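Need fresh eyes. Consider my entry:
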Amino acid sequence: MKIGKLPESVMKRSVYKKLRVKRPEVLVHSGIGEDCSVLDSGGDLIVMSTDPITGTADNIGKLAFHVTANDIASSGAELVGMLVTIIFPPESEEEELKEIMDALAEATSAYNVEILGGHTEVSAAVNQTLVSVTGVGKISKEKMIQTSGLKAGQDLVVTKWIGLEGTSIIARTRQEELKKSLPEEIVEKAMAFDQYLSVVKDAKVAMEVGVTAMHDVTEGGIFGALWEMASASGVGLDIDLKKIPIRQETIEVCEVYDLNPYLLISSGAMLIGTDHGSQLVEALEREGIHAAVIGHATEGNDRTVRNGEEVRFLEPPKTDEIYKLP
């Protein structure tokens, strides 16, 4: 199998077909595009999500926190705690553990999140440090949001810019190499994109305006996120490529390595389905969060992206562009 997320077809035939038990306490089950599972505890709903960081060893503690925090935020829930598993390859130094925990401690303090426990070990089974985080959140039943809540006719909004996470990872890990092709200022700005990785505030503003679906844009980029939300919701899409927000630094970095930025891992961007696209964009801008309406959901299953007169059909997510780096 190829590196990266497993294809939707493989997940359907080799994973989801094997999941035979569906308990009544589970309100949101495992499914394509769903960021979280949700349990009914009799009071607030318990929201859970898990993600590993495997594509980079740089800044891994910060990335691990935000990837899971963003998943919880996409359901509209408040993140309460995290379980953290860290597996080091042989010959790792304790200093690396301290760096990861310092980053986690800083992030959890900023968002008032408790580290509930986890597991740490050194294993010959890995050749690069692996950090896996399981987030636990809570939300009242009437406020819960799902990826599958998008309805035909609704606007689709993207917050900040696509490709932020991938651009930051590439710039940090290929800094000197990039400076041979790009101005130092562009590389430095690209490296600093990790300041935009959280969508917790984006989700809070969206919930106040009114939304029916949210999905943080991760592996597979914006094209992958659009496919997953449409597939989970059973709707089509009409998207204007020119309206998808993207930074010039991302374009420049991707051109150096011949990568497609629309298929690049994009934590920091949130995809939102709403009846109030323009109103939401205005509310986000008031909070200092750039956003744009990029299209709308349609009846049927056609998922199209327009670029002027050219029209293409979206395909199921493939291997993220980050894994194509030479």
Observations:
- Residues 62 and 106 are 9 Å apart (CA to CA).
- The longest strand covers residues 78-88.
